[in-house]
Amino acid sequence: MHIPPLPVSSLPQFLHFHTITLNGVTPVHLGGSPIDLGVALTFTSPHDPSKPLLRVSPTLVLSHATIEATSKSDRHLHDVLSAVGALAHNPRIAAMLFLLLRMSTAAGLVAGERDAWCE
Length: 119
Hints:
This protein is an alpha+beta fold. It has helices at residues 11-17, 64-71, 75-84, 91-106; strands at 21-22, 25-29, 39-43, 54-55. 10% of the residues are buried.
């Protein structure tokens, strides 16, 4: 399954639409060959010390509570978590299943719900 990555140039729009604020950090593409190392956040000066370096929307925090809340509106995720039974109570298993379902949706293999995790 190959999912084409978003270019780093689209990161400012992603940050804007998902209410992520950066204070004193800048995204930098690390590159690398033969394996691309991806994007890193590097500390830059100046920054406002009274504000956090990074503020992320609660909907983008991958937690067991977020997965349970999402499964109430996402039928596919609900079906997957129901199928594994008691294993879904393990936060790591639930997170792996959530991410696997989102990757499958991004690749077009499953007609699941699209959200920021599909990007």
